[in-house]
Structures are given as structure tokens and as C-alpha cells.
Amino acid sequence: MNISPRQLRMFLALSESLNFSKTAEQLFMTQPSLSKVIRDLEATLGLALFERTTRSVRLTAGGAQLATIARTIVGEYEAGLQRMQSSAQQAAVQLSIAAWPSLAQVVLPEVCAALEQAINAPRITVHDCANSLCIERLLNHEVDFALASVAPSHPDLQYQELLRDRFVVLSHGKWREQVPHRIALEQLMHLPLITLTDASTAMRYMSAAYLNRGIEYRPKMQVEQMATVVALVKKEIGVAVLPYLGSKTIPSINELRISEISDGPLRSVGIVTRRLGTATAIATTAMRQVQAVSQTLIQQNPGWILPPLPARSG
To answer: Rounded mean pLDDT of 31-57?
Structure first.
């Protein structure tokens, strides 16, 4: 039965006023249009709803019974619309982002602060996890977008490079004087290297750089947390190798020497999104803010953080 809420509302308005001209005026329509709507409704139901005379209009017994049912239907429909609107309003301010911890720490605070200014009471969830988990969360529709350091090869995902990050060496104490401001990969292998684990993209980039030279990359120590890396360097256990962006998360970075790896790799950093579907308004705003923060990082750290490669044509 094809009956719209609009038809039921008109029927209910007429059942209360019992006056076609007055009801039509209230509904901002002509009397003939209202009469047609009621005739169509009666034809659909196979039931006369009103008794019409030249002097009066009144509900039939069936019409009165239907009016009670129609009020319930319209009430439930409007309550459902309110629940839908409330849900849509909540969804419009919800945002979920995945990023590995050091990038989340450097980029996302400014992004979240900007969203607080642009959107009323945003509800933001940040999953700061390993690069592979960021991609997995995106594929599972757990996040709106991910910040990653490796362009994923998955056909359902697309990658937009934001910047490129140099690798550096952090040294302290007795090692500080033994590490020049610029050092080559070959020289680096003679030092006690401390890195993140094989699960990190930093380790993958460095391993690939040495593999291209036919050398196995064998650090002295591998740990999972950046704070542990820094603590080991400060105890002069060795020197740390990590991307420059990672060094920006270290509170006492001024106590350490930062040396450039002259022929080291450049780590790509970008936004990963799903190819299908449309980003929400808040996710689109957030991605624009991520791009703006990335541009600021490039400008404030010349030589250390580089702009993205030009997009390939065709």
C-alpha cells in the first residue's frame, strides 16, 4: 500500500478542521489539490473517509478509526525522523584517525585544535599504532583515514604523499664527538646502532637502503618505543637512527646531536583513504588541516623535511 506520511498529515489536518478550504489554507495549497489528495487516499484504501454535503464535512466511522491509527503512524514516523536526525548530527562530528605514534604526536594536536575551532564539539578518536595496523583499521572501516609512511598496494586504497622525511643519527656523550654533522651509510655501519624493531617503517626503509648496496643492516639493539631509544642514547649505549620527524617528539632533543645521513633514504609520509565512498565533512576538513600542518613542517624544517614528489601525469 503506497501511502506517504504527507498524505496522512493532510488527512489528519482535515479530520480535525472538517473544512477543506481552511485546511488547504493551513497547508499552503489549493482546495482542489487537497481534495485530490483525499480522493487518492480513499481510492488506495478502498474506503470513504469523509461524508461531504454542500453544508458540512464529517468523518465516516471508518475514517474516524483510521484517524486514530494515522496519528500513531505519523507520531512514530516523526519520532523516527528525530532519532535519525540526532544520529546524523552525532555522526557529523565524529572522526577517527589512525597514525603511527610519533606522527600522531607531531601532526595531530594542531589538527585537533583546528577542528575544535571549526566544528562544534567534535568527537575525535586517534588510533596511534604501527603503520600496518593503521592500514588494517582503514580497510576494516574503523577509521576515516590513516597517516602512513608506506604507500599501500591494496587496490581499495589510495595514497597522497604529504612530505618526505630524512633519516638522522642521534648521539650523546662519548659518541657525540665521533659522529659528524653529516655521515654516510657506509660510515654508519661502524657505530653501535639503536633502532626501532623490524615492524617499524623506519627499519624497513633503512634495511632497503643497505640492501641496495649489498649490505645487511644489523643494528646493535632494536626496541619498540621511541622513549627507550632515547634513554639508551643518553646512557651512551649507542647512537640512534630514526626519521627526523621522530626526533621532534623528544622533549630533551637539545641535549643530543642530530646528524644527517647524507645518502640515507627519504621516508614518505602521506594520507591513505579508501577509493570508494565519500569522506564526511569533518574528515575532509581534518585532511585539509593535515595538509596545512605538513606544509608548515616543510617550511619550518628546510633540508630535513622535504616537499612531496610531483604527481605523475597520466
So the answer is: 90
